[in-house]
Structure formats: structure tokens, C-alpha cells
Amino acid sequence: xxxxxxxxxxxxxxxxxxxxxxxxxxxxxxxxxxxxxxxxxxxxxxxxxxxxxxxxxxxxxxxxxxxxxxxxxxxxxxxxxxxxxxxxxxxxxxxxxxxxxxxxxxxxxxxxxxxxxxxxxxxxxxxxxxxxxxxxxxxxxxxxxxxxxxxxxxxxxxxxxxxxxxxxxxxxxxxxxxxxxxxxxxxxxxxxxxxxxxxxxxxxxxxxxxxxxxxxxxxxxxxxxxxxxxxxxxxxxxxx
Length: 240
Ligand SMILES: Nc1ncnc2c1ncn2[C@@H]1O[C@H](COP(=O)(O)OP(=O)(O)O)[C@@H](O)[C@H]1O
Ligand SMILES: [Mg+2]
What we know:
The chain has about 240 residues and is α/β, with parallel strands linked by helices. The protein has ten helices and ten strands. The chain folds into two domains: about 1-80 and about 160-240, Rossmann fold, CATH 3.40.50.300; about 90-155, no CATH class.
């Protein structure tokens, strides 16, 4: 069953055509990895799925809703069912870890503080950072910041999580722990994920399926084994 669908989606920033007639779907409970070099349009795809950008042509369906032309107010409840892990983590430096993680609940003033704390603790435990509850972001390593960003993305139990270059800048050990968390979200919390990255190893670590993006088009879609076997020169270059 499809949980995200992009049909014939094109997007340009002024004259810069970034996506051309893109067709892409994400199935329920799978990790789709979108591989592509820098500037390929990966982050743009995530912004379109979140409804932060509107496509020039085509249509986008998320969680059984056509979000293509929804107004900000209408899109909010759907966006609330998605979590986003931004490139670099994007934590609020002046807020403690628990406030960063609970941000989406604190914003919604109906949530009682006890409930916020409970959810934050549960999510921090999931990413193995319970002890960092009262830390400030400045006290965290790069890998820990990313784990806090993941805890924040899942605090409201989203059905979809979008990851923008989740391992960039991390050492191999931190990379492994982030990739394990992405896999555990699928297996233990039944989350469907889109992971965009330029790092092939991450695709092998987390992907059920891979889509490769080049010049605004999908040039490959399939399993990681098919990717390895591909004879396409561009893909070969990426894989080697
Ligand atoms: N806000 C923006 N305004 C103008 N051009 C942009 C903007 N964001 C991205 N671009 C351009 O669109 C292209 C794709 O960007 P992006 O989706 O960020 O690629 P990726 O995430 O794969 O590195 C790049 O050429 C980039 O310079
Ligand atoms: Mg990007």
C-alpha cells in the first residue's frame, strides 16, 4: 500500500528546473532511499512531501490525501503525522534537549506537561539518550545531536519520517547507530521512511528500495542488489 505518491511532479526555482516529471512512491512500512549527488533535488523532494513547496505540475498524495493544492491550515494535520530530521539536526541551541524533543507538543498548548515529559523520556530512551534530558545542544556530540533530532521527529508518533542526509558529517560509529535507529523505526514502530543521501553505504544499511536521482529524474529504482548489478555508467560510478 502506498503512503506517499508523487505523480509527474516538476519543480523549478525560477529558471532552474530541479525536478522533471518525477514519479515516485513510498509503500507503507518501507524505507525508501533517494540517492543523488549534491544539488540533485533531494531536499526539494522532502519539502514537496511536507507541503512546504507546491509543485509546478503533477500531484502529491500523502497518507491518502491529495496535498498538491492544500492551504497551509488544511495541510497542518497531515504534516503533523510526519516527522522530519533536518540536515545538521537543526536543534534550538538555547533550549534543553527535552524542550527540543518536546517542541511539537509544547507548541500545542493543550498537552499537559506530565504527558510532554513522559513522551520525551520514552523517545529519548528509544535513541539511548535518557541521560541527556537536561543537556543543552552545545554539550552534545554530532551523533548525539542527530539522535536528539530523531527523538524530536518521532515525539508525536508519526507514520512517516523524512531524513535529510542523516549521517553526513558523522564518524563511522555514529553513522552505524543512526542507520540502526532508522531501521528500528521501521521494524519496531512501523514507520515508513524516506531517507535522502549521497552516501551509498547508507542506502545499503537501511533501504528496502532505492531511487537514484540525476538531473531531476529518477534514473534507477529497485532493490540494493539490482543497484549493485546495474551496468549504467552513472550508477557504476556511484557504486564504485
Ligand atoms: N530556496 C532555493 N532557491 C533557489 N534555488 C534553490 C533553493 N533551494 C535549492 N535550490 C537549488 O535547487 C537545486 C536542488 O537543490 P536541493 O534540493 O537542495 O538539492 P540536494 O538536497 O540534492 O543537494 C540546486 O541547484 C539548488 O541550488
Ligand atoms: Mg539537500
